Amino acid sequence: MAEDEKAKAAKKKAAKKAAKKAAKKSAAKKATAKTAPVKKAPAKKASAKKAVKKAAKKGAVSGYGGGSVDVVMSVDQVAKEAASIAANAPTVAELDAMITGEAFLSINNLRAGYGKMEILHEFSLRIGKGQSLCLIGPNGAGKSTVLHSIFGFTNIFSGSIVIDGKDVTTLTPSQKLAEAGIAYILQDKSVFPQMTVEENLLMGGFLKNKPAEAKAAAEEVFSKYSRLADRRDKPAGVLSGGERRLLEISRALVMQPQVLLVDEPSIGLEPRFIDMVFEILDDLQRKDGKTIIMVEQNAKKGLAFADLGYVLVSGETAIAGDGDELLDNPDVGRLFLGG
User: Fold this and answer.
1) Which of 38-42, 113-117, 140-144 has the lowest mean pLDDT?
2) Is the sign of the CA dihedral 74, 270, 301, 187 positive or negative?
3) Could you give the 3-state DSSP secondary structure of residue 64?
4) Using CA atoms, how far apart are residues 206 and 323, in angstroms rounded to an integer?
5) pLDDT the model gives residue 134
6) Where is pLDDT greater, at 105 or 51?
7) Is the pLDDT of residue 36 over 70?
8) Which CATH number fits domain 75-336: 1.10.3720.10, 3.40.50.1000, 2.60.120.260, 3.40.50.300?
């Protein structure tokens, strides 16, 4: 029995010795790992930045919308510089002087936004009957909010919107369409693909008192645009992108509006269809006397089309003038036109 106890004691002693040895070995490994030099990954970002700078010096950096620019500006940088320009914002009297005749549509010191958030701050706008106005500016400047406010999609905190001498500030969107002649052409795809082209057009006349009136208005559209007339019985889903945009514009015409609010008419379209859409808008303005206010991502195209242009920054108008004048403005060109 004494010998067994001695053997057990010897085993315990050996086990403790082995555990201590293993602990020392593990601690040594950890210490080595801490002191060993860490291999750094190659600085890809730094080299990429150097490449961009090098290309910029050679004039080979492509800017937004195509073309070469000498300087690549961040979104924050554009917003910061645009805000500094806003210090010389036009007065209401200067906005009045830009229009032809008396103002047909006026926005007066408007404060508006969504929920409790104010986006437009004491914003004013003037446009004459049959004129066109393009709103440009950085993302979040409040361009679409102007259209939403005119049509009744925002909360109005103060100020007013007047069309042809009538205060329409508090009217609902349906009332603005039916009573004030304001139509909104959304930037999102809004055709009903399973319905025919004719059915889509008739949907535009849902506020007409009699179905026959909507039918007559749709026939006027077909007589004006043969592309749609040829496809009147086809599902709208088979139309090309440009034809769908034409259908969206035409559907708004069924209510025979005086004012067209057009949100991003060129978005998602091929160049050939963009030209077609702007030709249609030009025809509606020049021949039919429509008053057009648009927001357009392609600032060059929008300003070339419009009689007037406003540059919005942080919910206020920073610069305003003739469309051609803004195209030639070096600050507008540098910040919003790609050079």
Assistant:
1) 38-42
2) negative
3) coil
4) 35
5) 97
6) 105
7) no
8) 3.40.50.300
Mean pLDDT of all residues in 159-182 = 95
Q: Could you give phi then psi for residue 72, rounded to 5 degrees? A: -100, 120
In the chain, what are the domain boundaries?
75-336
Q: Distance (Å, rounded) from C-alpha 208 to C-alpha 214? A: 6
Mean pLDDT of 74-100: 78
Q: Which residue's entry shows tokens 């293993």?
A: 22
* Residue 147 · residue 261 · CB < 8 Å: yes
Residue type, 150: I
Under 8 Å between Cβ of 245 and 269: yes
Amino acid identity of residue 287, one-letter, is K
The pLDDT-based confidence of 333 (bands split at 50, 70, 90) is: confident
Question: What pTM was estimated for this model as a whole?
Answer: 0.75
The 3-class SS string of the chain reads CHHHHHHHHHHHHHHHHHHHHHHHHHHHHHHHHHHCCCCCCCCHHHHHHHHHHHHHHCCCEECCCCCEECCCCCHHHHHHHHHHHHHHCCCHHHHHHHCCCCEEEEEEEEEEEECCEEEEEEEEEEEECCCEEEEECCCCCCHHHHHHHHHCCCEEEEEEEEECCEECCCCCHHHHHHCCCEEEECCCCCCCCCCEHHHHHHHCCCCCCCHHHHHHHHHHHHHHCHHHHCCCCCEHHHCCHHHHHHHHHHHHHCCCCCEEEEECCCCCCCHHHHHHHHHHHHHHHHCCCCEEEEECCCHHHHHHHCCEEEEEECCEEEEEEEHHHHHHCHHHHHHHCCC
**Section 316-320 average pLDDT:** 93
Contact assessment for residue 8 and residue 2, using Cβ atoms and an 8 Å cutoff: no
Across the range 268-294, mean pLDDT stands at 92
- 219-231: average pLDDT: 92
